[in-house]
Design a protein that fits this description.
Length: about 325
Amino acid sequence: MTAKEISGTSSPHVALPSSSEQRDLRAYLPHAIVWLLLLTAPFWMSLVGGYTLLATRVLVLAMAAMGLNLLLGYAGALSFGQAAFFGLGGYAAGETLMHLAPSTPLAMVIGTLTGGIIAAILGPIAVRLRGIYFAMITIAFGQAFYFIVVNWHSFTGGEDGLLGFSRQPLHFDTLNIALNDINYYYLVLICFAVVVGVIAALLRSPLGHAFIAVRENEKRLQFFGVKAGTLLWIAFTISGFIAGLAGSLYALLNNFISPASLHWTLSGDFVMMCVLGGMRSFWGPLLGAAIYVVAENLLSSYTDNWMTILGLMFILIVLFFPKGVLGMIRAKVVKS
């Protein structure tokens, strides 16, 4: 800005933010709050009755839910097979530590690749169908892998799950970082940040806009010569890679993985997380995962029927707040 003479001296005015700059600040503020809470979670979780491993579990499940939300919330395809890629990633990570090398990064990489490659192979079959038929075939895929894991007792441990592995320290030349609860939380947070960055960049790209176009009007998209099936296959594969990474981190979190991690009911939990938080909002799955995990941890200490209470909560939110808890909060902020 130009300087203005005031009382015979030259002093520049302080530039006040314009209305557009203020809107930008308001847009970035929620993201800053989310990252501040995540970065400081190990230090305030105990103040609200939680613990670090609970925060880590929220991040891991939120990661899988955000991968599903890419397919469900943005591309409009309901999948109940996400747990298959999640569980396979976990088993691949455990088997890597037991039979290949005691390396946490290698276990994470192989778990991620396992989930993504399986999704890429099954995707062309699944995307031939739409609606409830797509959901049913993804359930079928997931249950097929579930029964393979249950019956392959010599390799997977069967119904007892896979034991005998544990997360290993990270080695950087002469520096060794032990993965205690707090360090492991920040390792998961780094992975979560990478996934968030990839999804954010993807949604801002032409490919991300094409995913939304599939959800809004697939026929019009095909009229322009774009194959919706190919777009759904890409979204299906990316969500599989993210689920595989989340599954490998989940196995390392517990130093254990069981067939329950592949069951379709866990896929239903991921769907519930997306819907609870807001499946067409970016941070909705994270909020939904936090609500789900905290409610499970709190309610299960009082009653064995905690799923009933959580189910009623889910029904009420779907009926009265179809855009999820985050959508409800956003609407109240706009009104105020």
